[in-house]
Structure formats: C-alpha cells, structure tokens
Amino acid sequence: MSLSHILRRQASASPDVVGLVGIGRTWTWAEADLRVGQLAAALQELGVEPGDRVGVHLHKSDDGWLAMHAVVRIGAVAVPLDPGAPVARLERICSSMGIRVVLSHEPRRSTITELGAAGVIDAVVGVTTAVDGLRTLTTADVANLFPVDPVDVEQDDPAYIITTSGSTGEPKGIVHTHASGMAYATESAELYGLGPADRVADTAPNHFDQSTFALWSAPLAGSAVVTMPEPHQRMPASFSERLAAEAITVWYGVPFLLQQLVVRGDLENRDLSALRWVKFGGEVPPPWVIAEMLAHAPNATMANIYGPAECNQCSFHHLVVAPLPGEVIPIGVATPSATMRLGAPDAGTPSPEGERTEGEIWVSGPTVMEGYHGMPETNAERLVEFEGRRWYRTGDLGRVDAAGVWWFLGRVDHQVKVRGHRIELEGLEAELEALDGVEHVIAAVDRRSAGEDSVVVGVFAGEGFDLDGFRTAARAVLPAYALPTHIATMSGKKFTGSGKLDRGALREEVLASVETER
Amino acid sequence: MNEMKTQELITFIRDEVAVMDGEVASDTDLLLSGLVDSLGVIRITQWIEDELEVDVPPGDVTLENFQTVDRIVEYLSGRNAA
User: Fold this and answer.
1) Which residues of A have a CB under 8 Å from any CB of B?
2) Which residue of B has its CA nearest to A60?
3) How far is CA A36 from CA A11, A43, B17, in A?
4) Torsion of CA A409, A321, A448, A481, to 10 degrees
5) For residue A10, which of A28, A26, A25 has the smallest C-alpha distance?
6) Does A70 lie in the same domain as A165?
7) What range defines the domain where residue A480 resides?
8) What pLDDT, in 10s, does the model give residues A223-273?
9) Which of A232, A234, A472 sits opposite B21 (nearest CB)?
C-alpha cells in the first residue's frame, strides 16, 4: 500500500459513502476518486512525471485535499505552499524545489499570476479561466479529462515535502516518502481508533504537518473528512457551530485555536458530545483551556501530541481528567513504532539507553523523514546511523522520568512556535537584516499570555530609518504569523566582550521595551 | 454606527489590523481574503466594544456578522433595534 492508493482503495470498498465534506458540497469516496483521477490526468497532460515536484497552493478546502491526493496518485511529489505566504517567499520555494506546475484555485489567482510573471512557474491547474502567460487547465477542462489510475510507486519514493523556514532564512524542505507517510497514517489511525463512523475535522493548512492526519489517516480508515476553512478558524463561534453541526468526532488542532474556541466559541450553546478526541500539538495550551474543553466536550479525551514535522508523531500524552492550574503537561510516551533516546546536546549520536535522564531528544522509527531536500550537510548532521538504526536529532531538549514519561524542556537553538507555526528566530533575523537600511535585527517571542505568542523585533539602523517602510518590506517577505507585532528601534551597546552581537541580552531588552509601551 | 465611525473602522482595519497592504472598502471580504487573521478579529471586536461602547457576546462573532464592514454595520444596527 502507498499513499497513491489510499483513496482508490476506499472508493472501491465504499463508493457511495460520503467521504469529503466541503462548504456547501459533499463528495462520496467514488466522486472524490474520480476528481482526483481527473486532476492527476491534468498534471500528466502538463508533462508532470513521477518524482517531479508539484506545488499545491489552495486555501483549506475540499479542493485542497483532493489536490494533494492527485499529486501523489501519479507518483509526483506534493509541495503544499502556504496560501498566506508573500509571493517573494513562494518564489524562493518554487525555485529551490524546481516546481513548474501548481495546483491551485480561483482565490489564489493573483499570486499564481505573479509567480507566472516572474517566470517561476509554467502551468496551473484549477482556476476558472486562463491565467495570462501560463498554460492553464481550468476546472472545466479538468472535468472533461479521462481519470487516471494510481501508479505503482516504490516505498522509498518521495511523496510530499513540508517546508519550514531554515536558520538562514532559506526554506527547508522536509521530504517524506510513501513509507514514512504510510507509517504515520497507519499508526495514527490505529492509535485513535479511526473507523467509518468517524468524522475528522480538517483544520491544519496543508503546508503544516498536522494536516496529514485528515489527508492520509482518515481516508485510510474510511473516516469522513470535514473541511474547516480559514474563515471559520478566525471566527471561533462559527468554528464551534460547524464542529457541532457536522458532528465531528476527531479534531487535531493547534493550542491557539483551542484557546480561541474556549474563550470565544460560545461553547455553552454548542453540542460537542460527538467529539471523541481533541488532539493538539506544537505547543501546550494552559491547563484551564484543557479543563474548559473537557467540560464542554463530555465524551472527549484530549491528546498532547509531540513530534517535529521531520518525524510526524513520536509521542503522546492523553488527558481524560482536567489538569490542575499550573500543572505541566508531559509529552508522554513514545508511539509504538518510535524509539526515543536522549543525547548530550553537542554529541553526534544519542547516548546508550538509560545513560541520561536529560538531554537532546533523538527519534528513530518508520515515520521519520527521508531528509531535507537538497541539504546533504544538514542531513549528515541531523540523520545519524547508531546501533544499527537511523536516528533523527530533533534539536529539542527533553527529560525522561523514572516512570518512563517524557517531558519537553525547550529548544537547543532559538526555534519558537507562534500560533503553531515554527519560526527560527535566527532565520527571521537574517531575512529582516537583508532589508534596506537595516544593520541588525533582534527577534524575540513575546509570551504575554500563553497561546497568543507573537514575534517582536528590535532594529539597529542608521540615520533616517523609515519604520513604515520597514514594516511594508517585512510584509513582503514574511508569512503573516511571523510578522512582528512590535518593532523597537535600538541604540547603544550591542556587542559582547568578544565582539559578537549579544543576542541574548538584546532579546531581553526588546521584550522590556514592549512592556514599557503597554 | 454612523458614517464617520464606519470610516474610522475601515481606517483602523486598513492601518492597524490588515496583514496585507491594500485598500479596504466597506464591502471588502475581510475573512476569505485572509486580510484579517484571528488576532485581527479580536482587535476589531475590541475596537467596537471600546469605541461604540457596545458589548459583543462571543456567540455573535460569526462569519455572517463579520465578513465585511457592511455586515458589521448591519449587525450593529440590528443590535440597536433590539
């Protein structure tokens, strides 16, 4: 079995059962399979071959879900592109991944047009009318194509690539194969007992690794997928309305959304009794949010999921009873297929089992990525053979207690999460330092209230620094979640005794300037 | 909400809330376009509560009521009538 065949198998087993629910329309498994076959035919028509990377640039929608399946159906590699990212960032991703063809939809037309005008891409599928300068297959064209069947792929062929910003500001592509994708799909479907009676909320954007649960695990188990588009996610009361009306049984989301839902979701007027699992990952919401959610979803268990996008899920901690105020939630125990180990932060390998109780977390198992796209040096450093197994070095610090339960202690580097999105502060600083008139940028995360973290920056610049110009330029290169909510102009001492930029102290200074302003 | 306040709200959204540059009109889709993110919705709600001294219960902050500035105006006039 490969990711290419998941949908076809479900369509053969239960063709007339509704498998995908969009806004105002539904798809039986057979209908979804037909459309995916036609989209795949469109890609072939445009010359896409197995192994080619194809951009998937759509908002959270049934079309976005179908597009991902269409790419893997013909053995091509899906690269979901953040629908909210500025064009400059998308250009870099498309260039570095060699993406020439993009599956998209009408709401993304302007971005697609710009990518075409910049000469970055050649063709687009899924808009309603032709895009100037691009070979276009419209939705009407696609509907006239003869659907293609899933192709046979090798288990270690690449299937999809999740991009994150690297420490230099350049996009980093996390390559998952059919084997690693299927290992996660199978294991998570089993862990959460997914079956045909389940209705899984599809919340995470496709370029976010949490989306693979609704994308692969749900159809594998025959669970219906219900799209939760971005506008609903911005309106907690509408989001909760849809959770209730669609009788969602499993939801995997980020703590930010969970907190929004609890505070502004009007939950006392919603029937969430169908919910069996509320899974969250990336960060941990405050205990009161978990407690409120458990109170409003009487049949739900909550799950804290740990796992960088490089390894899908590695561990879990399940909460049936509300935690106490101030209680720290562990990342729990390793999934059945994963082995977690600790290493000294500077060591090139994990330590032998049982030697340490604190250190950097290393993970080994079938859900671990193949590697970063085109980054042999980083791969050699992060993916290491040890004791006959292949290990991924997470860069996360952890502790394991006497009962074998794991606890997350922070990052080795300066990577942070803002509303569930991974940001490497050094990468962000590098991107902003490249802007006109800027000397140094210090980025920090403002944690004024848990679940609503935001990026703040301090800027060292020459005379006549144009703050508004800086803000506009930042918008052109950074995704919305990474945009600084506060910009302080800095002056004075900035170097340590050894002449290095004293980022640690300066971060404190930036955060202090936010406090003063409040 | 009077015409002046409506303009003030549009200016507030354009200058302080929008995550993208560009003009905002009373019928601009704030949510589907991605112009306003989750924090933006909260800030708009707070602006209404502070500037217009109207209490906006969480259950009213829906797609229907907040999709455009026109819809917000309509929602608020419904509130006044009630």
Assistant:
1) 59, 83-84, 107, 230-238, 241, 256-257, 260, 263-266, 269, 419, 452, 454, 472, 475, 480-481, 483
2) B32
3) 11, 11, 38
4) 80
5) A28
6) yes
7) 415-517
8) 999 999 999 998 999 999 999 999 999 999 998 899 989 999 999 999 999
9) A472
Q: Does position A451 have pLDDT exceeding 70, yes or no?
A: no
- Distance from chain centroid for Cα A208: 1
Q: Cα(A104)–Cα(A238) distance, rounded to whole angstroms?
A: 25
What is the number of CB-based contacts under 8 A between chain A and chain B? 63
* Contact state of A235 with B34 under an 8 Å Cβ cutoff: no
CB contact under 8 A, B34 and A419: no
For residue A205, being part of any structural domain is answered with: yes
Cβ contact B34–A230 (<8 Å): yes
pLDDT for the residue numbered A392: 97
* Inter-chain residue contact A483 with B62, CB threshold 8 Å: no
Residues on chain A touching B36 (C-beta within 8 angstroms): 234
Return the CATH number at A359. Answer: 2.30.38.10
Sheet containing A454-461: order of strands = A438-446, A454-461, A486-489
Q: How far apart are CA A454 and CA A470, in angstroms?
A: 18
ipTM: 0.84
Q: What is the number of domains present in chain A?
A: 3
Whether A52 is covered by a domain: the verdict is yes
Most confident of A455-464, B28-37, B50-59, B73-82: B50-59
CB atoms within 10 A of CB A515: 9
A504 shares its domain with A361: no
Contacts of A483 in chain B (CB under 8 A): 19
By CA distance, what is A109's nearest residue in B? B33
> Do residues A65 and A103 share a domain?
yes
Enumerate long-range contacts of B41-46, CB under 8 Å, 24 or more apart.
Answer: B41/A234, B41/A235, B41/B66, B42/A264, B43/B16, B43/B17, B44/B9, B44/B12, B44/B13, B44/B17, B44/B72
Domain containing B60 equals 3-81
Interface of B with A (CB under 8 A): 19-21, 31-34, 36-42, 57-64, 66-67
CATH number of the domain residue B53 falls in: 1.10.1200.10
| A335, amino acid identity | T
* Max Cα-Cα span within chain B: 36
Is residue A476 located within the same domain as residue A388?
no
CATH code at A455? Answer: 3.30.300.30
CA distance A15 to A33: 9
Counting the structural domains of chain B, the total is 1
Torsion sign, CA atoms A251, A253, A259, A264: negative
Q: What is the pLDDT of residue A128?
A: 96
In this structure, is the dihedral angle defined by the CA atoms of residues A106, B35, A69 and A25, taken in order, positive or negative?
negative
Name every chain B residue with its beta carbon within 8 A of the beta carbon of A256: 38
In the prediction, which pLDDT does A332 show? 97
If you search the block for the tokens 């919910």, which residue do you land on?
Answer: A275
Q: Given B36, B60, B64, which is nearest A234 (Cβ)? A: B36
Q: Which among B21, B32, B60 has CB closest to A231?
A: B32
| Rounded Cα gap, residues A254 and A239, in angstroms | 14
> Which residues have C-beta within 8 Å of that of residue A483, sequence separation ≥ 6?
A455, A474, A475, B19
Instruction: Examine residue A259 and state whether it is found in any structural domain, yes or no.
Output: no
